[in-house]
Design a protein that fits this description.
The chain is α+β, with helices and mostly antiparallel strands. It has one domain (3-79): 3-Layer(aba) Sandwich (Glutaredoxin), CATH 3.40.30.10. Helices cover 31% and strands 27% of the residues. The protein is built from 3 helices and 4 strands; from the N terminus they run βαβαββα. The protein has helices at 13-23, 39-44, 72-79; strands spanning 3-8, 30-34, 52-56, 62-67. Strands 2-1-3-4 form a 4-stranded mixed sheet, with no helix packed on it. α1 (13-23) links the parallel β1 (3-8) and β2 (30-34). The longest helix has 11 residues, at 13-23. The protein is globular, with a radius of gyration of 12 Å.
Length: 81
C-alpha cells in the first residue's frame, strides 16, 4: 500500500489551506513532516518547497511527487497511483 509523505511548515499559508483536505484522507497512509523539524527527511527527499507531497510504495521508492496546494480529489488520486 502506498503512503503519502506530506512536507509542510507551520508558517506556510498554502499548507494551512490544504490541511482540511489532508485531514479527510486515511491517516494511516499519511506521514507528515514539518520541514523546520525534520531536516534529515527534508534533505533525503530533496524537498525545496512546501507543501510537497511524495507518494512512496511499499519498498520506500518514490512513485509520484506534487508541489503546491492540491484538492481532496487530487490527493485521493495521488494515493491511488
Amino acid at each position: 500500500m502506498n503512503k503519502l509523505l506530506v512536507f509542510s511548515a507551520s508558517w506556510c499559508g498554502p499548507c494551512k489551506t490544504m490541511k482540511p483536505a489532508l485531514d479527510e484522507l486515511d491517516q494511516d497512509r499519511l506521514v507528515r513532516y514539518d520541514i523546520d523539524e525534520a531536516g534529515e527527511e527534508t534533505v533525503k527527499y530533496q524537498v525545496r518547497a512546501v507543501p510537497t507531497l511524495i507518494v512512496i510504495n511499499e519498498n520506500g521508492e518514490e512513485v509520484s511527487r506534487l508541489i503546491g496546494v492540491q484538492t481532496l480529489s487530487d490527493l485521493q488520486k495521488l494515493l491511488d497511483v
